[in-house]
Amino acid sequence: MTSNGAQRAGSAANPTPASALPTSVSVMFVCLGNICRSPMAEGVFRHITRNLPDSGSPPATPITSTSARRDGETPTKMHFHTIDSSGTGAYHALQPPDARTLNVLSARGGITSYSHLARAVRVPEDFLEFDYLLAMDADNLEDLREMRELSLRKVLKVAPQRPRRGGGGGLRKDHAGRSMQDVSEGEVKEAEGRLGRVLLFGAFGRKDPKSWPKFESAANGGANHEEEDDNGEEVIDPYYGGKKGFDIAYEQVERFSQGFLRWLETRSEYEGKNQQLDGSTGE
Fold first, then answer.
1. What pLDDT was estimated at residue 161?
2. For 85-137, what is each residue's pLDDT tens digit?
3. Residues 2, 267: Cα–Cα separation, whole Å
4. CB 49 within 8 A of CB 57
5. Which member of 1, 104, 184, 250 has the lowest number of beta carbons within 10 Å of its beta carbon?
6. Residue 86 φ/ψ region, left for φ over 0, alpha for ψ in the -120 to 50 degree band, beta for the rest
7. Are 261 and 65 contacting, i.e. CB atoms less than 8 angstroms apart?
8. CA distances (Å), 68 to each of 47, 102, 166, 215, in order?
9. Comparing C-alpha atoms, which of 53, 55, 46 is closest to residue 24?
10. Using one digit for the tens of pLDDT, what is the confidence trace for 8-58?
11. What is the 3-state secondary structure (H, E, C) of the chain?
12. pTM of the predicted model, to two decimals?
């Protein structure tokens, strides 16, 4: 995992200078089968971020994107370590994207070099590697949150809980491991901080940036904003429909990508200011 939170780069006693704050981010786009929506989002996001300063390749234009940069502002340098996509199920494992996804990427975005083989989300590996796992719809979001909880248990070496024998109600601890009651609050907080944040991709499609997801998740010491973060557009699966569904999905993932980039830039600025405040307090 790269840098899901500036607090990992330093501490209040030994703060990292704002200029040296980590700006490398890993992003995973997730749908059901990983052949339509999430590879489309990955392809669009890869295409957009090629134009970002310090993104690993020469910028094709001098700006990041039309909505990720406001007139008169200097964009935050943002490096994307890994951009990938996956599915909550392995229904189409090792298959290429749906031909209609590749067609709309080419026709609408001029994206002709994208390639990908479908795969399922890995637990806990993907939650440890990626800073953000962005769900295409509410079902994907619910599945990802369950997978994240399982990832937390694996990181903490807590055995999965299973129903008691005999149907007596409650849950029993697996004989081979410990239960969550055996884990300290500090251990949970440290493990939570290692796992990526799960968000609805469409939350970044809201017109008012103030309504976008909060910077601090409950896992990183902030309030629990899940209900608020759930409120956003869903990218409806176009698999069983025609071309129009893929066109609509393309418009959405392009718009959400622009919003997500803007949010990342604003978050980087926010964390930089907080890190400076921590530094002045620590001294």
1. 62
2. 999 999 999 999 999 999 999 999 999 999 999 999 999 999 999 999 999 99
3. 15
4. no
5. 184
6. beta
7. yes
8. 14, 25, 57, 17
9. 55
10. 333 333 333 333 334 589 999 999 999 999 999 999 999 999 856 544 444
11. CCCCCHHHCCCCCCCCCHHHCCCEEEEEEEECCCCCHHHHHHHHHHHHHCCCCCCCCCCCCCCCCCCCCCCCCCCCCCEEEEEEEEECCCCCCCCCCCHHHHHHHHHHHCCCCCCCCCCECCCCHHHHHCCEEEECCHHHHHHHHHHHHHHHHHHCCECCCEECHHHCCCEECCCCCECHHHCCHHHHHHHHHHCCEEEEHHHHHCCCHHHCCCCCCHHHCCCCCHHHHCCCCCCCCCCCCCHHHHHHHHHHHHHHHHHHHHHHHHHHHHHHHHHHHHHHHHC
12. 0.77
Distance in angstroms (rounded) separating the CA atoms of residues 96 and 111: 15
Report whether 148 contacts 194 (CB < 8 A). no
Quickly count: other Cβ atoms within 10 Å of residue 227's Cβ.
7
